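Quarterly update, task 2.4: hexanoyl-coenzyme A-bound model.
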Amino acid sequence: MDVSKLMFREGLMAGQRILVTGGGTGLGREMSEAFLKLGATVYICGRRQCKLDETVAELTALHGGKIVGHACDIRDPEAIHAMVDTIWADGGALTGVVNNAAGNFISRTEDLSVNGFNAIADIVMRGTFYVTLDIGKRLIAEKKKASFLSILTTWVWSGSAFVVPSAMSKTAINAMTQSLATEWGRYGLRFNAIAPGLFPTKGMSARLHPGGAGGNSGNNLNPMGRAGEMHELANLAVFLMAPGAEYVNGQTIAIDGAGFQANGGTFYPMLHALGDAEWEQLRAMIKGTNEKDKAERSV
Ligand code: HXC
């Protein structure tokens, strides 16, 4: 990311302690970089230790400060608990959590198995809730304030064909955002969400546009005629996480160049015409990516 395009003053986030789930790669890495650059202590977790180590080394070399990686699969509540114990022992309560970790792939719904559904729902819906619950309980017990931010999509308002487990799970987290904003607001815990449009990342491209599926038609249909730039997403995330925005609570904010208003922002226009052979091919490409990622998890 071009950090010169961050719109905030140096040191804005000094004293903040933020966990970014899925912070080793993709959008999580970009937001982590912005928080670190602005002075926060940043904890990142993900399933691949090698990716976390790489990100910690690269961001420390670029910006200094303190960023720590913890290998943790958020589908496992005990692993979350152990990680959060370690974070608390390393300097006390977190002041912020970014629920960014996700899993997704395009598929016709009739081609999904129960395992396929659970692979997404366990990360996106259950995992996000486990992280929020574990950390929320500690903050309430210690009477500490914090900001929670979840990364969603505009499908929480529209649903989306061909990514039904993701649309269902992210919608559940949208409900969590609104529900806990009210229930836990009295503890000084606030909950907001961002619904990014097209911000191309490796994990997303490999599973949602394998081999360029759908071309860049999402881009062309977007009124701004381009994808989002990472600093634009990071600026919104910093605004929602930084001191000074405490009265913003219970909101889900889209950052998609009005793609949602213009075309619904879903996969339907790009994928509805594909036939059996094309779906077979896409599935094979996605599986290849999943296998490669899995191999890295054991490194
Ligand atoms: C049908 C599939 C499939 C496919 C996997 N499965 N890929 N089914 N079509 N293309 C099925 C498998 O066959 C298996 O079911 C089950 O899903 C679990 O597969 P695993 O590979 O064992 O899962 P796992 O290793 O746990 O990996 C989880 C994952 C993977 C979600 C499937 O994609 C992942 O780790 N993703 C993380 C990164 C990521 O997805 N990034 C993109 C996020 S984009 P069976 O029945 O065979 O056992 C995003 C929103 C973007 O979140 C919004 C844009 C606007």
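Highlight for this quarter: The first strand starts at residue 17 and ends at 21.
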